[in-house]
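Quick board copy: two proteins, each given as sequence then tokens.
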Amino acid sequence: MKKLDWYILKKYISTFFFIIGLLIGITVVIDISEKVDNLVESEASLSYIITGYYFNFIPYITAILAPFFVLVAVIFFTSQLASRSEIIAILNSGTSFYRMLYPYMLGATILAFGLWFSNSYLVPIANKARLEFESKYIYKRNFAIKVNFHRCVAPGTYIYIENYDPDAKSGYKFSLERFVNDSMVYKLRSEKIEWNKNTKKWSVYNFYTRVPSASGYQITRVAQADSIFPFTPDEFSYKSGYKEEMTNEQLRDFIGYMKSQGLTDVEYYEVELYRRSASAFSIYILTIIGVSVASRKMRGGLGWHLVLGIGLSALYEIVMKFSITFSTNSSLPAIIGVWIPNIIFACIGLYLLKKAPK
């Protein structure tokens, strides 16, 4: 590598971590102001709040905002190079604009790999401790499972729970159906089921059973009974933030398990899995956009460059939210929904690169 490459690479990495330190400090202050009442009322010590929560909150928020930190960092130091006419000097020395991109892309590779590794392994570990702290000291309750919950608990056996409370280990509007050769041979419908930790059985309240008979169906109504079902409360213990606590391998295994059991909301876990790699790859795209925008010397300099960069970051986030919503609420495959923003902004990046000063 030439001295110029080292110069740009060091500028890239050092500016990125300077921006991270500055903005993460602001983010932590804002988070403290929002949660100060809960933290004061909690029984957690100051040292535990710092080490148990904020030491794990910082990796989480950094991983989310890292691509935008990259864009701001690239625009910040590249605009300074342009304002001092250093880019003009580089191009006049015989170095092409595309050759000048080499240290940028090397820096993007380092940061992209670091973000992918963090998203896949380090951040899930931090999220587990962070969410546990939030559940115990801030929100002081478990994350309830979604309503209208369907599951295949055994071959041909399906259950439905309209609402499940993990704290009380009880479900409401519960039904169980068994099928043989696509024909229903048994149905149980109950107002409530509740786990009895002493008997290790489910207590079923105000229920009826329906089975086929020679005259049609035989219906039996019962006020309360204990029964053994092919599932336990542990199978309903998955929290809404559980996907954030799993490594890539755990996510893939869990997605396979959900599909084999006929569970709903698989898309939320697929989106999380694909988002991790898409977020890392976006660093390349945003680096190209940042260089292309900031390398042109213009009136207003750094200020206008940063305004444009922040505007593109906001647009990227909006497109990401829309595409993820379509993936989780429609038939759009999760991998396509997650990668749509990268595809759109890759086209924008190539256009800006073509228009960049050569």
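And the next:
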Amino acid sequence: MEPITANDLTLYPISECAITVEFGNTIDEGLMSRISRFNRALSQNPFPGMYDTVPAYTTLTVFFDAVQVIRQNDLNGNSCFEKVSGYLENLKEDDDSAPSSESEIISIPVCYGGKFGPDLQYVAEYHNLTVDEVIGLHTDAIYKVYMIGFIPGFAYMGGLNDLLETPRKDTPQKVPAGAVGIAGKQTGIYPLETPGGWQVIGQTPVILFDAHRQPPALLKAGDRIKFEAISLSEKNKK
């Protein structure tokens, strides 16, 4: 099926039971706020059969039960795509649904450098900075979680100081759970041990993903994060 463009949104099917809504093609906080408002409005006014949404940098993917949707006479259209896309096109994005204040800042302790941050020295040399300057720049900023993806609980964060923008590694390597990394204009935390290509500058003792916890992921899109440098002894106590 061909994508539909309406109200400056582009909607296209990715399966028989999922549609992606594209809001733009730039990564910025204003676009993320609009996606959050749309997602909030949809969550408050779901169509029959909808069961999940997944926000990303520039898109929102909506998942639904195709059998329930196709049976809905109140949704106009001959296919699930037509019915759901028509509903989404007419969904009112209400600015008043946005929170009146910013979310609280979540502090994440990080032990920088050494065996916990094997790429910290490289990042410093790449930018002609000292290790302490890199740590200072990384901990001074307040980051915003733009999306969760790649692996469960992995938070992609915007707000990295331009002085720390560093390319990914050419070859992915095994990365431990809790590793804090930099890739391009982003910073993030690996919630689980996995291969990864980000420049690892530290590690947090905070558990980012626990399947037995509710919700399993500690962070979500829209959260604000600030990193706090801690010593090895402090890390071992946490």
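Board note added afterward: The first strand starts at residue 4 and ends at 6.
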